[in-house]
């Protein structure tokens, strides 16, 4: 009986050693995988996309395109004729997407309004390349500030002057309207010609318009009195516009 007992035990010892060896190999493999160059400990971080937050183009030039992108994902700007508002989203790898973009609807003779067709953009350093549908390149904007030109950063948007910010009147055909923006710019129409310029608060609680420009069309039967705007006062939801002799040229209700 003893030879049988020895033969039964002899084959079991190698099997036990083999099992232990397999476990040891698996343990070494797992440790090696964790320490491999592809692991998170030794891998180099992916380059961060360039920040889009800031001002692109010159917002003080009302006839040139510019964009102001805020950290909260909102945007304001102009295509050199119409004011733009909407949202933007970082897609990574230096690419951003624009969404819910709205604009005023004026016609400005001689102004290339390419920015109004914006859909996406790429950023390389301080240059933004704006793309339209199907990634068609529309134009480029240079960064002019790391800070967005948003409400609260401009003196025109502070204090009592903030009551003037908004849309006054309607942009229906042959109807006067003004869009007074928080960045100190103003756009609109006298019912015939497009208006662009800037505004600033006065000490008496009114605002003054400055550097106003307009197209020069003749529209028969249209009251173009708003084109003589020089200053304005606000009372609730009514904007009263005066000429340089303080005569009332238009009374516009707030529409936005």
Please tell me about this protein's structure:
This protein is mainly β and 256 residues long. It has 3 domains: 2-34; 54-145, Lipocalin, CATH 2.40.128; 155-253, Lipocalin, CATH 2.40.128. Helices cover 12% and strands 38% of the residues. The protein has helices at 2-9, 12-34, and strands at residues 54-57, 65-69, 74-79, 83-92, 95-103, 120-124, 127-131, 137-145, 166-169, 177-180, 185-189, 194-201, 207-214, 231-235, 238-242, 248-253. An 8-stranded antiparallel barrel has the order 1-2-3-4-5-6-7-8. It has an 8-stranded antiparallel β-sheet with strand order 9-10-11-12-13-14-15-16, with no helix packed on it. A hairpin with a 2-residue loop joins strand 4 and strand 5 (95-103). The chain is globular. Mean pLDDT is 78; it is low at 1-50 and 150-158.
Write the layout of secondary structure elements.
Blueprint: H1 2-9, H2 12-34, E1 54-57, E2 65-69, E3 74-79, E4 83-92, E5 95-103, E6 120-124, E7 127-131, E8 137-145, E9 166-169, E10 177-180, E11 185-189, E12 194-201, E13 207-214, E14 231-235, E15 238-242, E16 248-253
């Amino acid at each position: 009986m003893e030879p049988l007992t020895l033969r039964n035990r002899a084959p079991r010892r190698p099997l036990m050693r083999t099992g232990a060896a397999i476990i040891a190999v698996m343990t070494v493999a797992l440790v090696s995988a964790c320490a491999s160059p592809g692991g998170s400990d030794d891998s180099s971080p992916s380059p961060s996309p360039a920040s889009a937050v800031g001002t692109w183009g010159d917002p003080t030039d009302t006839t040139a395109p510019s964009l102001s992108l805020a950290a909260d994902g909102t945007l304001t700007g102009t295509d050199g004729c119409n004011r733009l508002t909407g949202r933007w989203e970082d897609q990574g790898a230096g690419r951003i997407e624009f969404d819910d973009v709205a604009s005023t609807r004026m016609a400005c003779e001689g102004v290339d309004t390419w920015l109004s067709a914006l859909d996406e953009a790429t950023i390389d350093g301080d240059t933004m390349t704006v793309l339209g549908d199907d990634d068609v390149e529309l134009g480029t904007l240079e960064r002019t500030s790391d800070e967005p030109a948003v409400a609260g950063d401009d003196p025109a948007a502070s204090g009592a002057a903030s009551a003037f910010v908004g849309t006054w009147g309607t942009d229906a055909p042959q109807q006067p309207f003004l869009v007074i923006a928080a960045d100190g710019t103003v756009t609109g129409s006298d019912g015939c010609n497009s208006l662009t310029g800037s505004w600033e608060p006065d000490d008496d609680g009114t605002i003054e318009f400055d550097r106003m420009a307009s197209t020069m069309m003749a529209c028969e039967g249209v009251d173009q009195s708003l084109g003589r705007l020089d200053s304005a006062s606000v009372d609730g939801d009514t904007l009263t516009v005066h000429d340089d002799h303080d005569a009332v040229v238009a009374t516009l209700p707030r529409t936005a």
